[in-house]
Amino acid sequence: MIYTCTLNPSVDYQIETKQLELGTLNRVQDTAFYPGGKGINVSRVLKNLGVDSTALGFIGGFTGTFILERLNEEGINTDFVIHDEPTRINMKVKTAKEETEVNGSGASIPKTYQEQLIQKVEELTADDYFVLSGSLPPSISFDFYEKLSAMCDEKGVSLILDIPNRSLKDLLSFRPFLIKPNQAELSEILEKEINTKEEAIKGAKELIQFGARNVIVSMGAEGAIFVNEQFTAKAENPTGTLKSSVGAGDSLVGGFLASYNKSNDFLEAFQYGVASGSATAFSNDLCKKDAVDQLVSQVLIKR
Ligand SMILES: Nc1ncnc2c1ncn2[C@@H]1O[C@H](COP(=O)(O)OP(=O)(O)O)[C@@H](O)[C@H]1O
Ligand SMILES: O=P(O)(O)OC[C@H]1O[C@](O)(COP(=O)(O)O)[C@@H](O)[C@@H]1O
Predict the structure, then answer these.
(1) Where in the numbering of this chain does the Carbohydrate kinase PfkB domain appear (predicted)?
(2) How many helices (H) and strands (E) does the chain have?
(3) Could you read off the pLDDT of 251-300 as tens digits, one per residue?
(4) Which among 16, 232, 269, 287 could disulfide-bond with 279, CB atoms 3.0 to 4.6 Å apart, if both were Cys?
(5) 250 is catalytic
(6) Structurally, how many domains does the chain consist of?
(7) How far is CA 20 from CA 17, 30, 275, 281, in A?
(8) How far is the CA of 208 from the centre of ligand 2 (A)?
């Protein structure tokens, strides 16, 4: 079974407006609410691609209820720890020119609730994948990532890490099956500029040395690279019109896992993941299977 874990979920409030001007009244053209947070997005993408998963993490309040209802409607298994404070709301503003994001910091999670989540992860076995994705809420420290990663390592659970944290390097000794920093995150982790695919491949190889088993660096409109101990590959995106790139990285992870789960083939999974990321970038919500299947042959992979 694939488990996703979102420690800091969100309701994503997407706004489309002709322009966004600070210090004045802006009126919007279009709005939509989506259940958000990186692990939740991975579960939603997996479901869209025909693969079941169970979404774990913390949710609470009226926003948490919204997330739970939407995931239930979509037929996604959930096993969240429910707390009292509302889950955060993240604003995603799209104008004709650019995308702007304002992410909340997150709810306060008491220690007893943190312990409840640990108990759920205790149940996982070596047949499972555990996708630990997204930021930490303010009341939880980096040790929590360490604790969950160490548990996966001990039990032989395949760990996928997609955390926007410069200390990701400190988790690589737990031998994650896959990590997926984006270009900016890789720069932060390695404390150097990453501008090209060649630089990203070099950087990803450093992360393999630290213990990661497979590394994908996503590079937005430029595509992505894949590195493991056996080979490296570059991917170019298919062409299309950008609608919203929110969740593109999570879609890459979801698409990769959906394909790898069936084929055990890294290159095929990488290609399908990139097609999923692009299909999300070309739509308002997360990618749907038809769109991914249409794009996949247009993703150019070079080993
Ligand atoms: N503008 C775009 N056009 C086509 N594909 C895109 C675009 N933005 C993102 N993607 C696809 O989605 C993947 C993940 O996007 P990226 O923005 O790098 O991740 P994150 O959301 O984690 O920052 C990219 O590697 C690419 O394949
Ligand atoms: O936990 P963080 O880093 O604040 O990210 C949460 C946000 O990231 C998202 O999961 C989207 O992530 P990506 O665009 O990186 O795939 C949103 O749904 C959510 O608002």
Answers:
(1) 13-282
(2) 9, 15
(3) 999 999 999 999 999 999 999 999 999 999 999 999 999 999 999 999 99
(4) 287
(5) yes
(6) 1
(7) 7, 13, 31, 21
(8) 25
For ligand 1, the distance from its centroid to the CA atom of residue 224, given in whole angstroms, is 8
Residue 85: CATH number of its domain: 3.40.1190.20
Angle at 136 between CA 54 and CA 155, to 5 degrees: 50
Mutate to test the pocket of ligand 1, among 45, 252, 282 (most ligand atoms within 8 A of CB): 252
275's torsion region: left (phi>0), alpha (psi -120 to 50) or beta? alpha
* Containing structural domain, residue 226: 2-302
For residue 236, give the H/E element and its range.
Answer: strand 232-236
Residue-wise pLDDT tens digits, 82-119: 999 999 999 999 998 899 999 999 999 999 999 999 99
Helix/strand/coil percentages in the chain, nearest 5: 40, 25, 35
Q: Give the Å distance between the CA of 43 and the centre of ligand 2.
A: 13
